[in-house]
Structure formats: C-alpha cells, structure tokens
Amino acid sequence: MGLEFCRFLLSNKPGAVVIATCRKPDSSHPLADLNVRHPGRLTVLQLDVNREVDVKEAAETVQTEFGKVDLIINSSAMLHPSGKGETSLKEVSAQGIISTLTTNTVGPLMMAKYFAPLLQRGSGAFGQQPPEKNKQHSGILVNMSARVGSIGDNALGGWYSYRMSKAALNMATRNLSIELSRGRSKVVCVSLHPGTVNTDLSRPYHRNVPKDKLFSTEYSVQCLMSVIDHLNVDKTGRAYAWDGSEIPW
Predict the structure, then answer these.
(1) I need a labelling partner for 39 at 20 to 30 A (CA). Which of 112, 164, 166, 238 fits?
(2) Which of 105, 101, 98, 183 is nearest to 139 (CA)?
(3) Do you know which PANTHER family this protein is assigned to (predicted)?
(4) Bridge partner residues of 44 (DSSP)
C-alpha cells in the first residue's frame, strides 16, 4: 500500500515531492525504479517503525531538507508474526500481541510524535480548505486502520492481536485529532480502511473474499486519495472506509 501511494502521488500530483520510508532502502527495487522515473521528486529514508530512534532521525532529516510536511500516511502494518490471525483464544500468545501492537499501534504513534511539528508547518495542500481561517488546516495525518478494528462493528470475534492493535490505533487517532486541532496550525487526523486489498497481509484469506470485494492496490489507493482530498477539520478524529462512509469506533 505504501508503495502504491508513492506511485499515485508522483503520477497524479504534479510538483509533489514524496518522502518514502522503508526498513531496507538499498534492497527496495520498486522505490529505486520510481526514483529513476521521477528524478528529484522522491526521497527514500531508512525507517523501522519498531525503532523510535529511526523515527526521530527520519523526522530530523525531513526537517533539515524540507522544513515541513503536508501529508503523512502511516501504512506499515502486520497481521500477526505468524502471518495469520488467531481464530480462537487458545492461539493467543503474549509475544504475538506485543509484536503486533508494536508495529500497528506504537509505530504510527511515534510517527505522529516526531512528525506532528512538521505537519503543523504544512501548507494545507491536501484536503479541502473552507473560507474561514479558523477552520483551515496545515496538514493531514492518515493512519491506515481496518474495519475489524471497530468495536461497534465486531460481530465475528477472533483475530485478537490485529483487532486490538487497530482499535488502539483508532484511539490514538482520536486523541491526536483533539490535541492537534488546537491553535492556529490544525492537523486533520483520520483512520482509513482500505477494503480487502490484494497484498501479502490479506493473501492467506483471499479464498473467502468475493472477487468484487478484493481490491487491487491501485484501486484502493485511488479511492483512499479521493477520501483524503475531501477531508477538512470537521471530519477530523473519525474513521472512514475506502468509499468515504464513516465507520463506527
């Protein structure tokens, strides 16, 4: 998903400069290819969201080189260290929950901690800006969540680690939306659900997904960017699906 967001922004937002992060930039051949096709518009930084020092150093680099950020999309995630969700309580392990929470919840929160000052200096290039100055935003923070993280929408149970991590991420999003809406430099903070996307994370469960409900990364990102383009301060602190519908917490 993160790679597809990079592709979309570089291809559809003329003049946009994209900063991509990954754990091993030297071995990320798709990002290297994008760099060749869009010279001067893509910066790739090393960052493992499980290491706070990586997040801090990346933010310092962006501060030095760019001074601000208009949009952050936190898309790093894992289903479970085993690669599949727990279907019952007997499959739950403390280490599995800790690992999933560290990547899916703590990582995005650390990103917010160190990058929020850069978003507060943003130009408000994304989303919709109303005429009232007190309702205008400087930046947008997107946490890629999932419908299964909704407590109100949970009718099937299971997937303890993943559900818990996304529910906690949604709470972090809500908290951030309150704190970062104070003052003149407002940051819109939302959780987004991409649908069931054809990625490694969901691949073990594709056989249970109807063909018309399994999205390509291209389609999902196109839909999500449309949601982002229609965000404003009145929509902050909420969760939205790929089609723009609101998801209950």
Answers:
(1) 112
(2) 183
(3) NAD(P)-BINDING ROSSMANN-FOLD SUPERFAMILY PROTEIN (PTHR43544:SF12), SHORT-CHAIN DEHYDROGENASE/REDUCTASE (PTHR43544)
(4) 20
246 exposed, middle or buried (CB, 10 Å; 0-12, 13-18, 19+)?
Answer: exposed
Query: What is the pTM for the complete model shown?
Result: 0.93
pLDDT tens track for 212-246: 678 999 999 999 999 999 999 999 999 999 999 99
Half-sphere exposure at residue 132, Cβ-oriented, CA atoms within 13 angstroms: 6
Contacts 24+ apart (CB under 8 A), 57-60: 58/21, 58/114, 59/114, 59/115, 59/118
Strand partners, 247: 239
Q: How far apart are CA 240 and CA 230, in angstroms?
A: 12
217 token code pair? 């990364």
Distance CA 216, CA 205 (A): 15
The owner of tokens 């993160």 is: 2
Tokens representing 115 are 């990058």
3-state helix, strand, coil in the chain (%, to 5): 45, 15, 35
Judge contact between 70 and 44, C-beta under 8 A: no
For 61-87, what is each residue's pLDDT tens digit?
Answer: 999 999 999 999 999 999 999 888 898
Domain boundaries, the chain: 68-247
Produce one character per residue of 73-99: b if its CB has 16 or more CB atoms within 10 Å, e if not: bbbbbbbbeeeebbeeeebeeeebbeb
Q: What is the CATH number of domain 68-247?
A: 3.40.50.720
